Amino acid sequence: MAAATHQYGDLATQLLVESRRSTATDTLLKYNDVLVRSIVREQRQLEALLQAALAAHPDEVAPNPLLPTILLYQTAINRNKRCLLAYHAHRIDRLKDLYWSVGGALPLLLSMPSAAPAHANADGQGNAAAAPADVRSKLSPHEVDFLRSYNTSILTLRTEAFSSAASMSQDDAGALTEDVDLMAPVVKPPKDLHVLVRVVRDCGVVHTEQGAIDFRRGHRFLVRRADVEHLIVQGFLEEV
Amino acid sequence: MEDDYYSVESILAENQKIQCQFKIDIPDMGHLDGGNERDIKALSKIQIPMWMAYILIYSDYADFTIPLPFSARVRNALNAEARSVRLSGLVGQGGLWYGFGRMIMRLLNDIPAQEVSDVLTKTFRSRLPEVIDQAHHFAAASGSGGGAIGSDEATMAFREGLDGTERDLFMLAQENARRTKRWYETSEKARRS
Question: The DNA replication complex GINS protein PSF1 C-terminal domain covers which part of the protein (chain A) (predicted)?
Fold first, then answer.
């Protein structure tokens, strides 16, 4: 027997223990490619065993004497499948949360350099939105693909269903302000049109209605909320 | 604990092992026992994880014995004083005693199932007030810089004996107490100024 030392499903359990740790510590762990691959390999082995058991007693009227064995192989296969699916579903959920926590700024999420979180922590403000640390390296290629197409779907929804520009195609810039902004934070409604912000991370020159503003770290600005809303969500600015 | 197909907790809970006695020989599965035998022999007793046990029991290939956490000894202890039984010690760290019990209950029929069900609900009912009570006082004690309320040995032992479900409830109640306190303090301040 190939699996003499461990029971079926042990590897899959390891995978799910990782998921649980991820929930408990509220972090995205690195995609465990090695473990996933070895579980898939175990699946192939099981299938081979199952096929062999089926082939040993072909087409008899009497029930196959190996029937219990076959059932157990089948159960183990189903179990592994459930574990794999649950692992990936759990990760997808986390990725979606991450996506919304940065206000749908996918490029930001994927290009976040590993130095950035240390930078943000040095400021000591513990801004949860700015936390995603070097997300890219923790993802599998498929997960990056998922995020991209998820992003595309959201953008389509935004332009087709929630944008006033769709109904009033003649107006261009003026109509855009009346869009429902899917990405806006909804935690508390703003009380003021203007907001005093502190720059947590450099974000270069931003063109606003009051003209171009160079957001440098440590400076404070009083700006129109609508102009910088997305920067606040993404953790570049912080309300004072 | 929900039974969702994708639920991580539910999957891990099914790793809990129970003892099965096989009624027939099963070829090529001897490794499940960890031994070197090639086949499982009839009448041999083996510890099997729940997810594998279901099919064996439903197909009538094996019988299972009521596992230790629900044995007569534990039931008697629960009857005597439910709050003095360490549930976490029965199912291992972070284990779900109630979840496990529910799984066992579903494997049984009629009267035995009803009995397990009664044990579960009765135990839960008699332990819940203590759980909530301690959660509130624990929050108050740690909030005011460590009073002497939480340091009592009996309450500490009880806290360590909570099963996974009770632990979650404890956390919720604690958070609840903390938030109520904060709300009370802030609204008070607003009223004065």
Answer: 191-239
Residue A51 lies in a domain: yes
Read off the tokens for B183. 């709300």
Residues of B in contact with A9 (CB under 8 A): 15, 49, 51-52
pLDDT in tens, A125-140: 334 444 455 777 888 8
Residue A152 is assigned to a structural domain of this protein: no
Query: Residue B37 carries which DSSP code?
Result: -
Determine the pLDDT at residue A172.
47
The order of strands in the sheet holding A237-239 is: A220-224, A194-199, A237-239
- Cα-Cα-Cα-Cα torsion B27, B31, B37, B42, nearest 10 degrees, comes to -50
3-state SS record for B64-81: ECCCHHHCHHHHHHHHHC
CB-based contact, A23 to chain B, within 8 Å = yes
Q: Decide if B143 contacts B181 (C-beta within 8 A).
A: yes
Tens of pLDDT, residue by residue over B10-27, are: 888 888 888 888 888 877
| Complex ipTM over 0.90 | no
In a domain, A42, yes or no: yes
Residues of A in contact with B61 (CB under 8 A): 68
For B181, other C-beta atoms within 10 Å of its C-beta total 15
Looking at residue A185, its pLDDT comes to: 63
Residues of B in Cβ contact (< 8 Å) with A63: none
Residue A88: domain span: 1-100
Question: Are A9 and B8 inside 8 Å of each other by CB?
Answer: no
Supply the pTM of this predicted model: 0.73
Helix (H) or strand (E) holding B170: helix B164-192
Domain harbouring A30, CATH code: 1.20.58.1030
Report yes or no on A2 lying in a domain: yes
SS3 call for A85: helix
Rg (CA), chain B: 22
**What's the structural domain count of chain A?**
1
pLDDT of residue A173: 45
Residue range B50-83, pLDDT digits in tens: 888 888 888 888 888 888 888 888 888 888 888 8
φ/ψ of A224, rounded to 5, equals -70, 135
Query: Could you give phi then psi for residue A210, rounded to 5 degrees?
Result: -90, 10
Q: What is the rounded CA–CA span in Å between residue A219 and residue A238?
A: 11
- A113's CB contacts (< 8 A; 6+ apart) are A134
Measured CA to CA, the distance from residue A90 to residue A83 in angstroms comes to: 10
Is the backbone of residue B163 left (phi > 0), alpha (psi -120 to 50) or beta? beta
